[in-house]
Amino acid sequence: MPNYFHFVVKVKSVAEVKENAGKEISNASTSFQNGESDLNSFVLDQYRRFFSSYALSYNFRHKHRGQVFLKKFKRVTLNVDTRLHYMICYVHHNPIHHRFRKNYTSWEYSSIHQYIHNNINEHYKRLLTTLFKTKVNFIQIHKEFKINMKESLNLD
């Protein structure tokens, strides 16, 4: 979208995150490794640092001053495959919902093109196979998707 974006991100296990956090020198990393903060706090800090460094780089490159991102990002935890199905479809259908396109496959900034044309790495192919079983099923679920499906799945 012109003024915001969505990511669907899979966070590794707590053990894997702790192992990688050991390679980083930060208060959040130390706190997480010592059990003083939880995985959620650590992940939020990682995103804060990512967006902060992006904003610094953007401002430097474009000789800009001030905020790059207007609002704090929102994060939704998805622990059920049905919710993950919904969010993946929701992200892909967002250009239709906001009237930027009439078809979700015509939005040039969408990751759906990589999925449909098998232009993704093995990790994501395995994830899609686990979630959607087949490419045909992935496409069918997207075709049938309706944003108001949220109510029927009790996703509030």
Describe the protein.
Helices cover 54% and strands 0% of the residues. It has eight helices and no strands. With 156 residues, the protein is an all-alpha fold. The radius of gyration is 18 Å and the shape is globular. The protein has helices at residues 14-21, 27-33, 39-61, 81-97, 112-116, 122-132, 135-144, 149-152.
Summarize this structure briefly.
The longest helix is centred in the N-terminal third of the chain and has 23 residues. By secondary structure, the protein is mainly α. It has eight helices and no strands.
Write the layout of secondary structure elements.
Elements: H1 14-21, H2 27-33, H3 39-61, H4 81-97, H5 112-116, H6 122-132, H7 135-144, H8 149-152
Strand content: under 5%
Task: Name the shape in a single word.
Answer: globular
Cα radius of gyration in angstroms: 18 Å
Q: Kindly report the oligomeric state of this protein.
A: single chain
Question: What's the main sheet like?
Answer: none
Number of strands: 0
Average pLDDT level: 84
Structural class from helices and strands? mainly alpha
Our count of helices gives 8
Intertermini distance: 23 Å
How are helices and strands ordered from N to C?
HHHHHHHH
Low-confidence stretches: 149-156
